[in-house]
Amino acid sequence: MTEPPARKRMVRPPTGGTDAGRSGPKRLKTAKERTPSSQAWLERQINDPFVVEAKAKGYRSRAAFKLSEIDDRYKLIRRGDRVIDLGCAPGGWMQIALERGAGAVAGVDLLPVDPLAGATILEADFTDADCGARLIEALGGVPDLILSDMAPNTTGHRQTDHLRIIGLIEAAVDFTVTSLRPGGAFLSKAFQGGETSGLLATLKANFAEVRHVKPKASRAESSELYLFARGFKGRR
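The structure assignment produced for this chain is given below.
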């Protein structure tokens, strides 16, 4: 999940350009009342072409392009599929799933998510014992595809944050291998060097294909990538 922006302020329109005639990066008019990290986040947002395109196309977040690019390459979403989205806020992945023909979509997040036609959204903690069953009930059947863009709130302590990331991925994998339809697929946010050998072994034992994917919409400087598995062998 990304850091929420501070109170909106007017941005000065470009008044100049580079020697090549193109305007340079946009800068915020003032940094008053903002932390340095908030200031950097806002400047990155206003200069991000995926953010601009997401607004133009009506997507709720730039993350929509991550899923659409992966789906273009690997054909994850098939018409009529039942899809579960873990960590669904603000809804960009659900929009792509519906746009590409999913028959039913159910999402869950700790944060409130605006209603989305065609999707059932739970405001809940996915790690709660009954949440998985509630998602499947909302979906109306066994899922064909499980998506996870979950990320923990960071503490700044590297080892603690690493363990939190692993914990969420493991929870998503555990749910997947006990709930997914045979032949189905799984896609989860991960981080470079972030998985344990045991987690990858579990996926390889349960899926015909397992790989890492870094879409172009995932910022180059970020360690974020995605863990993709398909050809689920069925519950054992």
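Interim note for the steering committee: The radius of gyration is 19 Å. The CA atoms of residues 83 and 105 lie 5 Å apart.
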